[in-house]
Amino acid sequence: MKPLVWLCFTLSGAAALALELLWVRSASLVAGATATTAATVLASCFAGLGLGATFARRGTAYPVRRYGALELAAAGLALVSYGVFAAFASELGQRVLEAGGWLARTLVVSLAVLPATVAFGATLPTLAPALAIPSNVGWRGGLLYSLNTLGGVGGIAAMGFSLPAVIGVRASYLTAAATSAVAGSLALWVGDDELPPRAVPAVRRFALRFRATAFFTVSFETSTRSSSWSSSRSPNTVHQGPRGVLSPGDATVHPADGWAAE
Fold this sequence. Notes:
With about 260 residues, the protein is mostly helical. The protein has one domain. The protein is built from ten helices and no strands. About 20% of the residues have low confidence.
């Protein structure tokens, strides 16, 4: 049943990157399509991932079960993030953001993004001891992160090219959350055997170092991509396309109209 756990982490990557793209678009719709908004989303994502990895530094005898619980938590918090953005897309929410200025917009975006990314950040340090031991942690750890990245490519492709335009913003959030929930449910179903006590600390230290290295490696590319996407849009205009999807060149509307049009 262990191959299913590898599949779970692939699905986790798809859900996480799909959500990141949805967050950038939703934040731009609600708080304005600016480089500052995109930077706030990215900063919240990386802060959450780092905090999650830090919280997961302590070992557990049941890593797969804890991983499953983290994926289910991420799924639920993804839906919470949609609710936060939807609430502040309303007339009242827009008045609050206008009155609060940049600080209110930053806090709202962080509130929507940070909780789910903390859960995602804890997944790799939690799951690594179930799939690797110190003698093979190098290639197995690399394979684990590669599968996660491959899933992320699928998530970005789905959300970046067509899915929100076809099914709408709300359904896209539900799809991403369901993907994470499937990963968590499969992990809980598979379960795990208790690890030898000595195996946990060594693999845990590797997982934390591996995740930190990977984050620094991809952060520049991710930041550049998202900043370029944001800078290609008018800094003072929020664009909205079919079913609340942000797309350049569409008519400018009030954010509440975009969420209502799903």
